[in-house]
Amino acid sequence: MSFDPQTADIRFGCGLSPVVPPPASAEAMLATLKAPDSVAAKFPVETFETFLNRMKYRLSLTRIRRKNRGTPEAAEARKGIKVLNQKARKAQFVWLGRHLSRRIWTDAPLRERLTFFWADHFTATGKAGVIRRGTSPYVESAIRPMITARFEDLLISTVLHPLMVHYLDQQSSVGPNSPRAQKGGRLKGLNENLARELLELHTLGVGGPYTQTDVRELAELLTGVTLAPETGFKFRKDWAEPGAETVLGKSYGGGQAHVRDVKAALRDLARHPATARHIARKLAVHFTSDTPDEGLVAALEARFLETGGQLTEVYRVLLTHPAAWEVAAPNIKPPFEFVSSALRALAVRPDALDTLDERDMRLHVARPLALMGHIWERPDGPDGLPEEDTAWLTPQGLAARLQWAVAVPQTLRPELPDPREFVRTALGARATPNVHFVAGAAETRWDGIGLVLASPAFQRM
Question: What is the rounded average pLDDT for all residues in the chain?
Fold first, then answer.
């Protein structure tokens, strides 16, 4: 099977739309990645550079509170921290609405899907306070602009990002023999979290060709990598473990500690054949099937190696390989894909989402997503969301999808389309006789729309 516009919009895009036509070719889809990111400008999400101002202000209030314990100034600072946290929490739900609006109205849906894919691959989130709300700004700054770069550049952009450093506790990792450790105090231990996830999740993959010694040596090389609320990323030479470190048989550093040695190791890991295999399989699984065609995986891997990890060329293989289109049982849509593709099929207006307050965004989007199995920007671990269909095909998850499909669309778009027409809008050639029948037989419009969205044909990609 070759390129099909409707399948392209569903499998590699954000779903069919009544107002945005499907792509004409794979090359047309790739061309949208090079075009200006107009939908991001139309539905802005705060960058991490701007979000950093929230962190700086939080730090200033904390310092006032500590310096003036038991005084009115400390009480006022404590109140300011509470207000700051509340504003950041509310902003997080605004950004959720913007993510949805981007998917509904974009004419470059592949960009949205790839951004989400890489954001999950490089999962990072804050643990408490203001930084807990930093995931969307992190994605906006470290991932979205980098999805057409080389993988090594995307790797450096994410792994050395302040949020990743915070999430994997790298800011508390100090070389055991570093000048900082020799001074004593609480910061004197090596933390291997970032090194382990970098090898296991971000590059070589589970079962990759590395040992515990590689993990420790990489962790020692990473000492010095930390963050500062005032500036974001920071490399502290006095925290770095002295001497050279050997990772996968190659030596790094040995002179004065410098972040360039860390970046050199990251580039080598990004170019490793095991990384090519890991990324190739993960792309194939995410976009096609839990059991992808081995020919497709091999072709993705080969192109990754041939181009030095040039991601646009890897995507080209994904979109043009025949096996990407010949999928007997395509993936079940994860919760966010299901909700966003439903809203795209309904062409829900931007103001319908932008005017929702935090309570309504929780009620209509965040809480239903959680019942479907996806807690927004609160991952269970650094491995992100599960890819297996069985993770989403649970009784509770399916019941939540049906309930959302019947109840929420009429709230976000009171003037629902005729279900008999909506079948063609949402499913195109995938609409089965059974779906046509239930859409026409439904007693109300919202029941008809809900049944179309809950149908097996709409649930799969």
Answer: 96
User: Distance of alpha carbon 7 from its chain centroid, rounded?
Assistant: 23
Cα distance between residue 362 and residue 356, in whole Å: 9
| pLDDT > 70 fraction of the chain, expressed in percent and rounded | 100
Contact 13, 23 (CB under 8 A): yes
Helices (H), 108-251: 109-121, 135-138, 151-159, 162-167, 179-182, 193-197, 212-222
Q: Which residues contact 351 (CB under 8 A, 6 or more apart)?
A: none
Q: Could you tell me if 18 and 144 lie in one domain?
A: yes
- Write the single-letter amino acid at 272: H
Residues 140 and 52 in one domain: yes
Which one, of 230, 234, 233, lies nearest residue 56 by Cα?
230
Position 187 pLDDT exceeds 80: no
> 145-156 b/e with 16+ CB inside 10 Å = b?
ebbbbbbbebbb
Alpha-carbon 177 to chain mean position: 36
295 pLDDT above the threshold of 80: yes
End-to-end, the C-alpha distance of the chain in Å comes to: 16
**Does 47 share its domain with 119?**
yes
Q: Is the pLDDT of residue 27 over 80?
A: yes
**E strand or H helix that includes residue 84:** helix 72-105
- Residues forming beta bridges with residue 245, ordered by sequence position: 252
Residue 19 lies in a domain: yes
